[in-house]
Amino acid sequence: MNHTSPELLLSIVAPCHNEEEGLGEFYRRAVVTARGIAGEAFEIILVDDGSTDGTWEVITALAAETPQVLGVRLMRNHGHQLAATAGLAASRGERVLLIDADLQDPPELLLMMMPIMDRGADVVYGQRMRRQGESWFKLASASLFYRLLSRLASVAIPRDVGDFRLMRRRVVDILLAMPERDRFIRGMVSWIGGRQVALPYERDARFAGTTKYPLRKMINFALDAITSFSTVPLRISTWLGLASAGCAALLLVYTLIRWFAGETIVGWSSIMAAITAFSAIQLICIGIIGEYVGRLVQENKRRPMFMIESLLQGGRSLEIPSDFSDLDAAGKRHALKSALSGSGETADGAEQVRAIR
Fold first, then answer.
1. CA 166/CA 109 separation, integer angstroms
2. How confident is the model at residue 271 (pLDDT cuts 50, 70, 90)?
């Protein structure tokens, strides 16, 4: 099959951020696995998420060497979830594997995922049974996060599951049609529904480099996940407010009783402690509400999810519309088809299939 055909059997999407050291090994293993499944009817989409090392140079060399490699360079670091979204938007395969390029998730597991999908699954996701090469703090915090999320989320999100998954094209198209900017892909895929099947596996240690998820990013990611799929924190703030009001009413009754009994009320420190406690509760409630309001503000700005600086395949750069991220799934595929064929109709053709928002 011609590698520029939109009817590819398989797309492998891999976000990359400072993965210069291990990207070549990931490419080698991914190509061997993909060829064993789809022959030449596959593509590997490597998304450079604002790397500061030689990641883009490696991608450029791989794209020149193998026509199935599509390199996507974002204009800045957008974060893992939006980089993954950019890669999914550029994919054209009937089945799409989303995987990190650090080789913690083995590409060879695709050989086990495909037969499960052949039997009717819409999504096959990897479920981590063991995580090698990670600190006790990372393991403990991840376990706490998944268990907390499973209790708070409005949809069933499997525990110990990342973004490593194989999806049918229709699932990917629905995912891309979801407009939110603060994305939590594994939760969004769970929300879509359909037949989703777990594939247990042992997660490997990183092949090279260091983790790209420090504590600050982990906390922000957890907040995005919780606020995207649960309103329980807002209800907690409501219950805290009611509890505070109840305590205040009890203190007022107690004060009146002591006053009618003719007893002098003393205890400046206890009064200040009560004021401080109630103020803290109020600030916590305001902070919870602020998290949701802040996300609403960001969503309403309607800025592009991601900005692509360069798109290349083989030895040539491809031209796509500047508003590529705002096109619907059909518009993205049309723009890519025009770019790959070099027809020069990218902007006009994509304009005709723009999503109505």
1. 10
2. confident
Measure the CA–CA gap between 32 and 48, rounded to whole angstroms: 22
CA distance 99 to 102: 9
**Burial 158-178, CB ≥16 within 10 A → b, else e:** eebbbbbbbbbbebbbbbbee
Q: Note whether 213 and 135 are within 8 A (CB).
A: no
**Whole-angstrom Cα distance, residue 39 to residue 32?**
10
- Pick from 197, 176, 214: nearest CA to 114: 197
Question: On the CB side of 56, how many CA atoms lie within 13 Å of its CA?
Answer: 16
Please check the confidence at residue 270 and state whether its pLDDT lies above 50.
yes
For residues 44 and 3, is the Cβ–Cβ distance under 8 A?
A: no
Residue 112 and residue 188 in contact, taking contact as beta carbons nearer than 8 Å: no
For residue 126, give the nearest of 101, 155, 104, 149 by alpha carbon.
104
Residue 132: its H or E element? none
Residues 6+ apart with CB under 8 A from 16: 23, 46, 47, 48, 49, 51, 55, 59, 83, 101
> pLDDT value at position 345?
42
Asked whether the predicted pLDDT for residue 265 surpasses 50, the reply is yes
> Which pLDDT score, from 0 to 100, does residue 231 have?
66
User: How do residues 190-234 score in pLDDT, each as one tens digit?
Assistant: 999 899 999 999 887 665 556 655 666 667 766 766 766 666 777
pTM above threshold 0.85: no
Provide the total of helices (H) and of strands (E) in the chain, helices listed first.
Answer: 12, 9
Strand partners, 318: none
Between CA 109 and CA 295 the distance in angstroms is: 36
Looking up tokens 């990917």 gives: 172
d(C-alpha 61, C-alpha 343), whole Å: 25
- 87 vs 78: CA distance, rounded Å: 12
